[in-house]
Design a protein that fits this description.
The protein has about 300 residues and is of the alpha+beta class. It has a single domain, classed as Double-stranded beta-helix (4-Layer Sandwich), CATH 3.60.130.10. Strand 8 and strand 9 form a beta hairpin. It starts with 8 loop residues before the first helix and ends in a 6-residue tail after the last strand.
Length: about 300
C-alpha cells in the first residue's frame, strides 16, 4: 500500500510547460509524430541542448550535481505527447529516470545492464497502464551501445498469414519484469493477443524475454515474429543531445551490449514514459507515480 508520498513531479511538469521554449522545428516534429507515428513508429531528434553533464552517476538514483536543463527539456517534450508518469518499481518511481550501467546488473535483462543485449520488448508489456510513448534522451553516449528499434509495420509484410492470424488471437501470456515484483513470486498474466486493431495497421505488444505462447502453434508464431523483427530493425548509437521517441504500440526496442567502465565516463541516458491520459490509472496512482502491484 502507498499512503502519503511527497513528490515534485507535478511542479516539474508545470515548470517545463511554462518555461521551456522548444525550437519550432522540434515542436512541429513531435506534434506531427503524435498525430501519426506510422509507419516507422519512432522519431530521432538531434543536437538538443542538455546542459553541462557531470560524471555519470554509479546508480540511477544517486545524487548528481547536474543542473535540471535536460530534465526540463525532456518533460517539456513529453508533455506535448500526453501525460508524463513514473512507475513506482522503476528507480523509485522517478518520473525522469537515469539509465546508467550498474555492475551488479551488468548481465541481466534490465535497463542498467551492459554486457548483454537487451532483447526486443514493448515497454512494460505486462502492465495494465503501460506507457503510450517512451523517450530516451542521451546525455553521454557510447558508440558501441546501439539502441535497436523494430516496427510492426516493417515486420508485417514478412510474416506468414498463418502467423498473423495466430498473433491476433489471445493465445499468449506475459510474465512480469523482475523489477516490478519486490521479491514477490512471478506469474504469467491472462491470455492476450500480440497484435490488435486493424489487420493492416495493428498495434503490437511483444516481449521476447517474458512472453510465451499457450500452445505449440502460438509459440511458433511468437518465434517467427521475433525472427522477423530481428531481421528488420534499425539501430542507432545515441550521442549527447540525441532524443529518440518510441510509440510503444508500434515498435519494440532493445540495446546492444557494450563495455562499461564504471569510472564516471559511461553512457548516460535519461528516460521518461508518457500515457495518453491520467484517468485510466487513477486507482493505481499517487500523483504522477503509477503504483500497481504484481506477484503473489
Amino acid at each position: 500500500m502507498y499512503s502519503t508520498v511527497k513528490r515534485d513531479d507535478e511542479t516539474l511538469v508545470q515548470t517545463a510547460r511554462q518555461t521551456v521554449e522548444l525550437p519550432a522545428d522540434v515542436r512541429d516534429a513531435v506534434l506531427a509524430f503524435r498525430a501519426d507515428s506510422t509507419p516507422q513508429g519512432w522519431l530521432l531528434l538531434r543536437d538538443l541542448t542538455v546542459g553541462d553533464v557531470p560524471a555519470t552517476p554509479p546508480e540511477p538514483t544517486a545524487a548528481t550535481p547536474k543542473s535540471n536543463t535536460s530534465e526540463l527539456l525532456l518533460v517539456a517534450i513529453a508533455a506535448l505527447l500526453g501525460e508524463p508518469v513514473g512507475y513506482e518499481p522503476e528507480h523509485g518511481g522517478d518520473m525522469v529516470q537515469n539509465l546508467v550501467p550498474v555492475r551488479a546488473s551488468s548481465g541481466r535483462q534490465t535497463s542498467t545492464s551492459s554486457r548483454i543485449a537487451l532483447m526486443f520488448h514493448t515497454e512494460a508489456a505486462f502492465h495494465p497502464h503501460r506507457p503510450k510513448y517512451l523517450l530516451l534522451l542521451c546525455l553521454r553516449g557510447d558508440t558501441n551501445a546501439q539502441t535497436t528499434v523494430a516496427s510492426i509495420h516493417d515486420a508485417l509484410p514478412h510474416l506468414s498469414a498463418h502467423a498473423i492470424d495466430t498473433l491476433f488471437q489471445p493465445r499468449f501470456r506475459c510474465a512480469v519484469d523482475e523489477s516490478y515484483l519486490h521479491g514477490r513470486r512471478n506469474s504469467l498474466g491472462a491470455p492476450s493477443a500480440v497484435l490488435s486493431g486493424n489487420r493492416s495497421n495493428p498495434a503490437m505488444v511483444f516481449d521476447e524475454d517474458l512472453m510465451v505462447g499457450t500452445d505449440v502453434e502460438a509459440e511458433r508464431a511468437l518465434h517467427e515474429l521475433g525472427a522477423v523483427l530481428a531481421a528488420n530493425h534499425a539501430a542507432v548509437a545515441l550521442a549527447a543531445g540525441d532524443l529518440v521517441i518510441l510509440d510503444n504500440d508500434v515498435v519494440v526496442h532493445g540495446r546492444s551490449p557494450f563495455e562499461a567502465r564504471y569510472d564516471g565516463t559511461d553512457r548516460w541516458v535519461q528516460r521518461i514514459m508518457v500515457v495518453s491520459d491520467l484517468a485510466a490509472s487513477a486507482a493505481d496512482r499517487v500523483g504522477r507515480m503509477i503504483t500497481t502491484e504484481f506477484g503473489d
